[in-house]
Amino acid sequence: MAGRPTFAVMGAGAIGGYFGGRLAAAGYDVGFIARGAQLAALQADGLQILSPLGDASIAPVRASDDTAEIGPVDIVFFMVKLWDTEAAAAQLAPLMGPDTVVVPFQNGIESGARIGAVIGADRVMPGAAFIPAAIERPGVVRHAGGFARLVFGEVDGNRSPRAESLLKAVETAGIDATLSPSIGDVLWQKFVMLASHAGVSTLARRPSGEILGDADLRATVAAAMTEVVAVGEAEGAAFPDDFLDQQMVLLDKFPAKVKPSMLQDFDAGRRIEIDGLSGTVVRLAAAHGVAVPVHRTIYAALKPYKDGPPSSLRA
Question: With a threshold of 0.85, does the pTM exceed it?
Answer without folding.
Answer: yes
